[in-house]
Amino acid sequence: MQFSTIVPNNAQHTQLSLFEAFIAPPGQAFQKAPVEGWPSQAPEVFSELSLRGATGNCLSLLAPMLRELSEGEHMRWLTLVAPPASLTQNWLRDAGLNRERILLLQPRANQTPLQLACEVLRLGRSHTVVSWVNPLNTNGRQQLVTAARQGDAQSLNIRLG
């Protein structure tokens, strides 16, 4: 996962903006610094999370984050692109997610998960697009960053290992 630790104002490290709502202490402001090797704006629109272990355990770790993203005051969708087969409508319900604010999309036969994620990001109808694009190389990351900026959205890629 590409991130640095979060520390108060006077520090040189940063946490990706998508996760600040989950871990920032109330009233605590953070200073953002670019992640080494990334364009300075990339952390604002792109995050990547790597999960390893049993599928059920990985989904348990992912559930609170997706729940928070589905319950926000957003007028746009939380879109899940090419999620694993175990992430079903029943799982969404059991995990307490607001299914009325979530779209689950699978790529068509002639489309890759990366292409679909970029298309959804560019359209701008989703506040966050969570994708399962594996492997994701530097070119793929840049495509997601560009598309997220065009659609004023956040891109989160999940790598399952």
Q: How would you describe the overall organization of this protein?
A:
- The chain has 161 residues and is an alpha/beta fold.
- Helix content is 35%, strand content 17%.
- It has a single domain (41-160), classed as 3-Layer(aba) Sandwich (Rossmann fold), CATH 3.40.50.300.
- It has six helices and five strands; from the N terminus they run ααβαβαβαβαβ.
- The chain has a five-stranded parallel beta sheet, sandwiched between helices.
- Mean pLDDT is 81; it is low at 1-16 and 21-33.
Summarize the structure.
By secondary structure, the protein is α/β, with parallel strands linked by helices. It has helices at 20-23, 42-45, 55-71, 89-94, 113-123, 138-151, and strands at residues 46-51, 77-81, 102-105, 126-131, 154-160.
Tags for this model:
161 residues; Rossmann fold; five-stranded parallel β-sheet; 5 strands; 17% strand; globular
The CATH homologous superfamily name equals P-loop containing nucleotide triphosphate hydrolases
Poorly predicted segments:
1-16, 21-33
Helix-strand topology string:
HHEHEHEHEHE
Strand residue content: 15-25%
